[in-house]
Design a protein that fits this description.
This protein has about 500 residues and is α+β, with helices and mostly antiparallel strands. It contains 18 helices and eleven strands. The longest helix is centred in the first third of the chain and has 37 residues. About 35% of the residues are buried. Bound molecules: protoporphyrin IX containing FE (HEM).
Length: about 500
């Protein structure tokens, strides 16, 4: 009997085995086919290359970018050469994207081929060679530090924890404005000075549990006051990050010394490191003395033991610099536009009054204030604080907009250009919050591309939205804002950025 069973089962087993192998082979072939079909690296070089903006030998298009507002030049070129074109900056070739549709390809569909960065010399030094969430390649380090920052600072639960700090910040801004008005009723106020200082205080409280007034910096043998700490931690690195070293464009000339440039960047690096070290030391002393604090540094000390000392320092510094700038840029532009357009300001004031009455605006009111949200969104569109997304690097051949993009290309998403796209926005030059009221998806925070998208979407968008919306709401609820009668249109911006060149100066009048 055994033999009979054997005779029947062996071929069956063999058949199953052969069948299994065949199935495995078919499945493997299927996946191979799918991969090679989906992976552009195999087929993309049969596609046409990205259209080029004509340049000159060696320098490529560098001279055409010398006016130092690349996002505007890129937008002008998009009108001539289309939503995707390539330029040469010295020895590097760069693809510039100025439409939402192709930007989404870069950020989502083709992300696996474009998930790294090639940094300029200054950024390499100032980011401690990509040791920040925002500047890292997409890898395990990025996932770890992004998890830390979302868990303990920027995610919805962490933001709930910092609510009291935000309320204090708004109260302080309002009080400082009232105090200014009491003393100088007919003078224009510089909102940036007040708002930025309070924003920095909030960033310090989130990171270190305390708005530090002064600190002894052992490595520099000096005591620094708050303003100087702000310069070292925020202003200097911000300026450094947009500094350009001509060697960035000609990697084959890296050996040529450019000492004065290197010294400037290294001085920024050393001073920032010294101040951060002093802040960390002081915090450790507070913990040792039994003070109970609930801030990012406390979380990092207990949960981020795999980080090296330098990575720890960078992780702590990251939300300080990121909190202190873009939100202020947005709020200042919104207030400039509202001061320039009294009718729109009245409309916003009426909306706030109808919802809040005699109470001060709070975060709970936000969902009932669509016009306030539209003011914020329209400001992000017209004056996007990050006009060009930090450059991405193509590490394997890919396809964008139906064109072949070879490995080694850099990709710039021109957010400003996307937001000025006439096919998407009617009269894009006009600041008109109304356009966000008629949209079905007007509450979509990512409608304008200002916060990027995909896996590298801005981690601080919630914080930026809440602070900026409540900031604008409270400023309009407490005061009427006016530009001086002789004020001229002033939309100039600072260097490569979209920050207002001249701070907004406005006359304020407390509301009854
Ligand atoms: C209006 C204000 C803001 C704007 C317009 C903005 C814009 C952006 C953009 C465009 C990116 C994407 C970069 C890329 O894909 O390469 C980004 C990333 C990021 N932003 Fe923001 N940001 C704002 C506020 C903030 C704030 C307040 C914080 C933190 C305090 C923050 C933290 C980050 C971080 C950590 C990333 C990196 C995310 C990642 O790479 O995974 N941002 N932001």
């Amino acid at each position: 009997m055994d033999g009979v069973i054997d005779m029947q089962t062996i071929p069956l087993r063999t058949a199953i085995a052969i069948g299994g192998t065949a199935v495995a082979l078919v499945v493997a072939l299927y996946f191979w086919f799918l991969r090679s079909y989906a992976s552009p690296s195999h087929h993309s070089n049969h596609l046409p290359p990205v259209p080029e903006v004509p340049g000159v030998p060696v320098l490529g298009n560098l001279l055409q970018l010398k006016e130092k507002k690349p996002y505007m030049t890129f937008t002008k070129w998009a009108e001539m050469y289309g939503p995707i074109y390539s330029i040469r900056t010295g020895a590097t070739s760069m693809v510039v994207v100025s439409s939402n549709e192709i930007a989404k390809e870069v950020l989502v569909t083709r992300f696996p081929s474009i998930s790294t960065r090639k940094l300029s010399y200054a950024l390499k030094v100032l980011t401690e060679d990509k040791s920040m969430v925002a500047m890292s390649d997409y890898n395990d380090y990025h996932k770890t530090v992004k998890r830390h920052i979302l868990t303990a600072v920027l995610g919805p639960n962490a933001q709930k924890k910092f609510r009291a700090h935000r309320d204090t910040m708004m109260e302080n801004v309002s009080n400082e404005l009232h105090a200014f008005f009491e003393k100088n009723p007919n003078q224009e106020v510089n909102l940036r000075k007040i708002f930025q200082s309070q924003l920095f205080g909030l960033a310090m409280k989130q990171a270190l549990g305390k708005d530090v007034e002064s600190i002894y910096v052992k490595d520099l043998e000096t005591t620094m006051k708050r303003e100087e700490i702000f310069e070292v931690l925020v202003v200097d690195p911000m300026m450094g990050a947009i500094e350009v070293d001509w060697r960035d464009f000609f990697p084959y000339l890296k050996w040529v010394p450019n000492k004065s440039f290197e010294n400037i960047i290294h001085r920024m690096y050393t001073r920032r490191e010294a101040v951060m070290k002093a802040l960390i030391q002081e915090h450790k002393k507070r913990i040792a003395s039994g003070e109970k604090l609930n801030s990012y540094i406390d979380y990092l000390l207990s949960e981020a033991q795999t980080l090296t000392d330098k990575q720890f320092l960078m992780s702590l510094w990251e939300p300080i610099i990121e909190s202190s700038d873009t939100t202020m840029v947005t709020t200042e532009w919104a207030m400039y536009e509202l001061a320039k357009n009294p009718n729109l300001q009245d409309r916003l004031y009426e909306e706030i009054q109808s919802v809040c009455g005699s109470e001060k605006i709070t975060e709970e009111n936000l969902s009932q204030l669509p016009y306030l949200y539209a003011v914020f969104q329209e400001t992000l569109r017209k004056h996007c604080p990050v006009p060009i997304m930090p450059l991405r690097y193509v590490h394997e051949n890919t396809v964008l907009g139906g064109y072949h993009v070879p490995a080694g290309t850099e990709v710039a998403i021109n957010i400003y250009g996307c937001n000025m796209d006439k096919k998407l926005w009617e009269n894009p030059e006009e600041w008109n919050p109304e356009r966000f009221l008629s949209e079905k998806e007007s509450m979509d925070l990512y409608k304008t591309m200002a916060f990027g998208g995909g896996k590298r979407v801005c981690a601080g968008s919630l914080q930026a939205m809440v602070i900026s919306c409540i900031g604008i709401g409270r400023l309009v609820q407490d005061f009427e804002w006016k530009l001086n009668d002789d004020a001229e249109e002033d939309v100039n911006t600072l260097g490569l950025t979209t920050q207002k060149l001249h701070p907004l100066l406005a006359l304020i009048n407390p509301r009854k």
